[in-house]
C-alpha cells in the first residue's frame, strides 16, 4: 500500500537501486548473468517510464566485486542483459553508477554515502530536489535519498518488507509500494 495516491506532477528523474528493485536479490549476491533475474513487473515498469519520457539512472552497491565473488566484467554482462530486456526502451537508462568497494574501505560512493548519486548528478547535470525520486529496497537507499534531497521511495521487494517492518516509524517521509511497477502505476 502506498502513502501516495498519485502524483500532481510527474517526476523529473528517477534513480533506481538495482538488486531487490530491478532484479531479484540474494543474500549470497548476484554473481553471474544467469543469476540476474528481473523482479516481476520491473522491466515493464521501466518501459512505462520510457513511454512517459522520465529518464532513469541506476545506483548500486556491488561489494561482491571487492570480495572477489564476481568481476566487474560480469557486472557489465548483467547490465547488458538488463538493457537487452528493455529493447528499444534501453536508452531511458541514462547512467549506471556502481560502488565495487567493501564496506570497511569507507569509500565515498557506497550507499548510504552520496558518491553514487553525486556522480549521476554530475554526469547528467541533475539538480536534486523533491521531483527526483530514489527508489530502493534498503534503509541505506532511503538514507542516501534524504541526504541529497530526493524523494525517497521504498519498495517491498528484495529487503523492502524487512526494512518496512523494522523502520516503520522512520519512514514518514517515504512513499511505500509493493514493487517498482506499483510505484510507476501512480505516475500520470
UniProtKB/TrEMBL annotation:
Gene Ontology biological process: carbohydrate metabolic process
Binding of Mg(2+), residues: 17, 19, 137
CDD domains, per the entry: HAD_HisB-N (cd07503)
Binding site for Zn(2+): 99, 101, 107, 109
Enzyme Commission number(s) from the entry: 3.1.3.-
Alphabetical UniProt keywords: Carbohydrate metabolism, Cytoplasm, Hydrolase, Magnesium, Metal-binding, Zinc
Localization of this protein: Cytoplasm
GO CC, alphabetical: cytoplasm
Co-factor(s): Zn(2+); Mg(2+)
Site features described as Contributes to substrate recognition, chain residue numbers: 110
Residues annotated as catalytic: 17, 19
Site-annotated residues for Stabilizes the phosphoryl group: 60, 111
Principal localisation: cytoplasm
InterPro entries tied to this protein: HAD-like_sf, HAD-SF_hydro_IIIA, HAD_sf, Heptose_bisP_phosphatase, Histidinol-phos
GO molecular function: metal ion binding; phosphatase activity
Similarity comment: Belongs to the gmhB family.
Descriptive protein name: D,D-heptose 1,7-bisphosphate phosphatase
Species assigned in the record: Francisella frigiditurris
Amino acid at each position: 500500500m502506498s502513502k501516495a495516491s498519485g502524483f500532481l506532477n510527474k517526476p523529473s528523474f528517477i534513480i533506481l537501486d538495482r538488486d531487490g528493485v530491478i532484479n531479484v536479490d540474494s543474500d549470497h549476491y548476484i554473481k553471474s548473468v544467469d543469476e540476474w533475474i528481473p523482479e516481476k513487473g520491473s522491466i515493464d515498469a521501466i518501459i512505462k517510464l520510457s513511454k512517459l519520457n522520465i529518464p532513469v539512472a541506476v545506483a548500486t552497491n556491488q561489494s561482491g566485486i571487492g570480495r572477489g565473488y564476481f568481476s566487474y566484467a560480469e557486472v557489465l554482462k548483467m547490465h547488458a542483459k538488463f538493457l537487452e530486456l528493455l529493447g528499444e526502451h534501453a536508452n531511458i537508462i541514462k547512467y549506471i553508477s556502481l560502488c565495487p568497494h567493501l564496506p570497511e574501505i569507507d569509500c565515498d560512493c557506497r550507499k548510504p554515502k552520496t558518491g553514487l548519486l553525486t556522480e549521476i548528478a554530475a554526469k547528467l547535470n541533475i539538480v536534486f530536489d523533491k521531483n527526483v525520486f530514489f527508489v530502493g529496497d534498503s534503509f541505506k537507499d532511503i538514507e542516501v535519498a534524504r541526504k541529497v534531497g530526493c524523494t525517497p521511495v521504498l519498495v517491498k521487494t528484495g529487503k523492502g518488507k524487512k526494512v518496512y517492518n523494522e523502520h516503520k516509524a522512520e519512514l514518514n517521509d517515504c512513499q511505500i509500494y509493493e514493487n517498482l511497477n506499483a510505484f510507476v502505476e501512480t505516475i500520470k
